[in-house]
Here is the input.
Amino acid sequence: MDYTNLPPLTKGALSLESWNEDRRQEVLELFRREVYGRIPDEESISVSFNTAEQSSGYMEGRANRAIVEIICRRLDKEFVFPLYLFTPAAKTEPVPCILTIMNRALSDADPSRRSISQFWPAEMIIARGYAAAVLITHEIAPDYEESFTTRFHRLFPEYVKDRPSDSWGAISAWAWAMSRAIDYLSIDKAIKADSIAVAGHSRGGKTALWCAAQDPRAALVLSSCSGCSGGAITRGKTGEHIKEITGTFPYWFSANYRKYADKEDSMPFDQHMMAALIAPRPLYLSHKTQDAWCDPRAEYETLKQIAPLYGLYGKPSPLGDAMPGPEETVVSGNLGFHLKSGTHDMDEYDWERFLAFGEAHFSPC
Ligand code: GTR
Here is the structure.
């Protein structure tokens, strides 16, 4: 694939003057309007928190658990979703936190810890000195077509019928919820407010990226196999494209996004521009060899495209031309990438590297 014709990050030569706040807002607006959809009238939603439960004795006494209800009200509607938060019991000082958006069966991120899964190894995260927070997609916005009527969507009944083509899809609702979780984590005294990372896999990986693109408080991003409409440049990628993803999951995106199916060359953006919105914050993308649907090469290219921007910010993160091979990891400055043999998944191998990347930036221990 020849990447010389990608839409450029800036108008004119890449410099910090041309990648200024106006340009960032312009790019953000492109992704809000054309891809994920905007949440309208955000100011009309009030958010408060209720610590519904606080208990100790988890993970053989090594962790405390809080369940925080995030209460969202708009006009006469209310919608509440839980944030599950484990903190290391032995720590007296605030700790960095990894906030994961979980998009699989509850057993993959079981808040009771009866079911343990490599997908969200909270015990390992705690042992390394972080707090482990998790949100469950299903508890925020349904991951199936339901005409935008339940959970988060019910705050906006007037958008059920005449839904503008730039209205939010589920990814925007999940990303919004991650930001509300950051609202809470930033005021919890157990957490270091400037050291909150966001993480997710696949649709969760897309969500974590979109959250961080919009919310500068997401201080570090860990995104596994996010692929199409996530970390992968769409033009020229293998596997899934806009036609397939909007055909199967139309409710993830704004209605506008569908118009680019089979017309990707006409997009005034591509995914490297969303990743650029995260610069110069630390960003790590991980991959599996047998995930042609996602296309690791297209994700590595995203990092290569934004690496010069990190240099301009004084965070040099140069990357070699060739993508790392299986079982290889590349970390350069604030950018990280690895490829592991296997199928579309997130596991302890990935978390090992995510946590090491986090340690280089957050010093959790
Ligand atoms: C697929 C989707 C991918 C990816 C994946 C997942 O079906 O098309 O883009 O997000 O689901 O979330 O596991």
In short: The pocket of beta-D-galactopyranuronic acid is lined by residues 103, 202-203, 227-228, 240, 245, 248 (CB under 6 Å). The first strand starts at residue 46 and ends at 58.
